[in-house]
């Protein structure tokens, strides 16, 4: 199953807990990319540009999904920007959109210096722009949407696990 959503929505944090709860593997496309490029993503954006990053991100996503990866996969917030990535995601068995408001995200990420797109003078404005463009794209490929506003990380992991179990019990693949 794949987790999507804006930077800071909890794809890695919730994803790790969910994998434990489901007793399955956890992987993070950003971590795989970082290993592959041998530098932080922020440095890669500065040296090589976003477009090169998106190429590598596409290859990594396709490798996981074409390879039939069965665990929990956290993705980068921009994974839905490319048509071919959205096509890949539609073939995944479950895609969960962790929805978070720009206001919540800017609070969570106020000390972050790693996310290249948010190193701007007005990160709230940037997050609102990202939300406007991406929210419809996340919804387009999501199997279901979870609002992350109130619940804790462990509650969210339990909520998703329960939803996946219900889907499985109702005969829908998870
Ligand atoms: N539901 C939540 N409530 C409060 N803080 C959260 C929640 N989900 C994630 N966080 C915090 O927000 C930050 C970003 O989370 P992270 O999992 O790295 O996001 P992503 O992988 O989606 O970019 C971390 O400090 C994490 O602890
Ligand atoms: O939103 C984006 O376009 C990006 C989000 C980042 O991942 P997170 O969503 O884990 O921050 C990372 O993939 C890269 O900096 C680009």
UniProtKB/TrEMBL annotation:
Q: What does this protein do?
A: Catalyzes the specific phosphorylation of the 3-hydroxyl group of shikimic acid using ATP as a cosubstrate.
Q: Where in the cell is it found?
A: Cytoplasm
Q: Sorted alphabetically, which keywords does the UniProt record give?
A: Amino-acid biosynthesis, Aromatic amino acid biosynthesis, ATP-binding, Cytoplasm, Kinase, Magnesium, Metal-binding, Nucleotide-binding, Transferase
Listed cofactors: Mg(2+)
EC number(s) reported in the record: 2.7.1.71
Q: Which GO terms describe its cellular component?
A: cytosol
Stored Pfam families:
SKI
Cofactor annotation comment: Binds 1 Mg(2+) ion per subunit.
Residues that hold ATP according to the record? 8-13, 115
Q: Which pathway does this chain act in? A: Metabolic intermediate biosynthesis; chorismate biosynthesis; chorismate from D-erythrose 4-phosphate and phosphoenolpyruvate: step 5/7
Q: Does the keyword ATP-binding apply?
A: yes
Q: How does the record describe its quaternary structure?
A: Monomer.
Q: Which CDD domains match?
A: SK
- What organism does the record attribute this protein to? Caldimonas caldifontis
The protein's name in its UniProt record: Shikimate kinase
Annotated positions binding Mg(2+):
12
Which family does the entry's similarity section mention?
Belongs to the shikimate kinase family.
Mainly resides where? cytoplasm
What PROSITE patterns does the annotation carry?
SHIKIMATE_KINASE
Q: Which GO terms describe its molecular function?
A: ATP binding; magnesium ion binding; shikimate kinase activity
Give the UniProt record's GO annotations in the biological process aspect.
amino acid biosynthetic process; aromatic amino acid family biosynthetic process; chorismate biosynthetic process
